[in-house]
Design a protein that fits this description.
There is one protein chain. Helices cover about 15% and strands about 30% of the residues. By secondary structure, it is an alpha/beta fold. It has 2 domains: about 90 residues, 3-Layer(aba) Sandwich (Udp-n-acetylmuramoylalanyl-d-glutamate--2,6- Diaminopimelate Ligase, Chain: A, domain 1), CATH 3.40.1390; about 210 residues, UDP N-Acetylglucosamine Acyltransferase, domain 1. A 12-stranded mixed sheet has the order 7-10-13-16-19-24-27-30-33-36-38-39. Strands 8-11-14-17-20-25-28-31-34-37 form a 10-stranded parallel sheet, with no helix packed on it. Strands 9-12-15-18-23-26-29-32-35 form a 9-stranded parallel sheet, with no helix packed on it.
């Protein structure tokens, strides 16, 4: 595939500096080798790194519109735009679109219940099990060794990578992408402690995943205990995340690897969670909040909060404490050395 630079520029509302007829046949890293970068496009988001433009082998580079191209080499053509990272994502998707079923193909080893409803076209991979009452939308691909439990629903243009499990009744919207090993709709951690041990509380709710969600490998999203766990439109989960029963995750919220959300937590739209953050149950996190990596959060947050640390506290407060602690340690070490004592 080759696309004219002018066509790509128009698609992302960029201004061309260079040959608009230049054919682009893919994307690459800014520091890619000559063989890897020939005829391809890259991006640079930080204007302070503009010196790297003279070293890149890419044929064209997306750069911030604030960058002054005067005096820069045009050996890579430049596309000036508002957000190079976002523009690069959109252009890369043109060269690497998500796969979509174009004809119905069911592998002979797959087990598909007679009561399952498969729109045309869909693809079902080897050793996959589709149980009674399942519905799969047109364009969806279910790869090898997946299990779709009874009455579960998979929308249109979805992609399930190998070994994904949908527990019974789980509902996925359109254009949902789920990576290998993810388990969706498993029982939440519901137990009542009795005199002779724990007694299980049946988890009879469902998991609902709205449109355009992407779920990382080995991530687990639990079903509701009595009602539902709901994942909002456009949410993103990295690998090894866990969302417990009855949670509500707002649209376009993103979680990095190993984030854990305890039960009945409500999370607003456009929130961001750093890796290994741990969130206790029955709290509310306001829209647009940022939870730093390894944060331990046990209280509700208003919209727009930014916290880090364990226990989590406001970003500036945390780093101020770190700075004070460093000065205290340095002062103590200096006092010991001045007094002839052994240094720490």
């Amino acid at each position: 595939m080759e696309i004219r630079l002018a066509e790509l520029a128009e698609a992302v509302e960029a201004e061309v500096r260079g040959d608009p007829e230049l054919p682009i046949r893919g994307v690459c890293a800014l520091d890619a080798s000559l063989d890897e970068a020939e005829g391809k496009l890259s991006f640079l988001s930080d204007p302070s790194r503009s010196g790297e433009l003279g070293k890149t082998n890419a044929a064209a580079v997306l750069v911030p519109g604030s960058l002054d191209p005067a005096g820069l080499e045009l050996r890579p053509a430049l596309l000036l735009c508002r957000d190079p990272h976002l523009a690069f994502a959109r252009i890369a998707s043109r060269f690497h679109p998500l796969p979509r079923a174009v004809e119905t193909r069911i592998h002979p080893s797959a087990v598909v219940a007679e009561t399952a409803v498969l729109e045309d076209p869909v693809e079902i991979g080897p050793f996959t099990v589709v149980e009674d009452g399942v519905r799969i939308g047109a364009g969806s691909i279910v790869q090898a060794s997946c299990v779709l439990g009874r009455e579960s629903l998979l929308g249109r243009d979805c992609l399930l990578h190998p070994r994904v499990v949908l527990y019974p009744g789980t509902r996925l919207g359109d254009r949902v992408r789920v990576h290998s090993g993810a388990v969706l709709g498993a029982d939440g951690f519901g137990n009542a402690r009795g005199p002779e041990g724990y007694e299980r509380i049946p988890q009879v709710g469902v998991l609902v995943v709205e449109d355009d969600v992407e779920i990382g490998a080995n991530t687990c999203l639990d079903r509701g205990a009595l009602t539902e766990t709901r994942i909002g439109r456009g949410a993103r989960f990295d690998n090894l995340c866990h969302v417990a029963h009855n949670c509500r995750v707002g649209p376009h919220t993103a979680m990095a690897a190993q984030v854990g959300i305890a039960g009945s937590t409500k999370i607003g739209a456009w929130c961001m969670f750093g890796g290994q953050a741990g969130i206790s149950g029955h709290i509310e996190i306001g829209e647009g909040s940022i939870i730093g990596p390894q944060a331990g959060l046990g209280v509700s947050l208003p919209p727009g909060s930014k916290v880090i640390g364990s226990p989590a506290r406001p970003w500036r407060e945390f780093w101020k404490e770190v700075a004070i602690l460093k000065r205290m340690v340095a002062g103590r070490r200096g006092s010991r050395e001045a007094g002839g004592g052994a240094p720490d």
